[in-house]
Specification:
Length: 215
Amino acid sequence: MKIFLVEDDVLLNEAITMTFSSLGYSVTSFDDGKTAFENIDKTYDLFIVDINLPNVNGIELVKEIKKIYKEANIFIMSADIDIQTIIKAYDIGCIDYIKKPFDIREIIAKIKHTLKIPIGNVKFKNCELSFYNRDKQVFVYGDEEIRLTNKELLLLEILIKNANNIVSNEQIEDYVWGESFKNGHVRQLVAKLRKKIPCNIIENHSSNGYIVYTA
């Protein structure tokens, strides 16, 4: 997953970036509105924007993001708890409003449970064109509909979100079972998913984790 982060508090910006990077997310961060404004593009899965930014404020930045990319997923962060500000943020297109101060685990939870891989085509490097439907929990291969369990779905989801990058066993455990679960059941889950999908899209990467390649 690619994240576009705009936060002018340098320490908070660095903390968020480090945390997301450790989870396998690709983060591009900015500490002022003007620079962020000049670098908006459609390749990001999530935009996280502070409201009070130097040069170009967060509200104007979100408006521009929506103008360029209507389907953008946007989280707004702010210490402003005025209800009119919150209403305005939703009116211009944010999907969640995160009040400062916050626990970074709150944002991680929102990313996991709010964002879904959109229904669409995924073409893997070593597999025929497949179709992944998050809402129905199915993976369609050709004319065959393969129903996944929730854990299999989460495994496939984190691998697709981080396609072409290694996802560590620890990252998979955190995503599928939660931070407190460390029983090493990733290998068994991967084996179960491989049995359901006709072609082998999941590759081992030594003992470091797993990867899927998209074309």
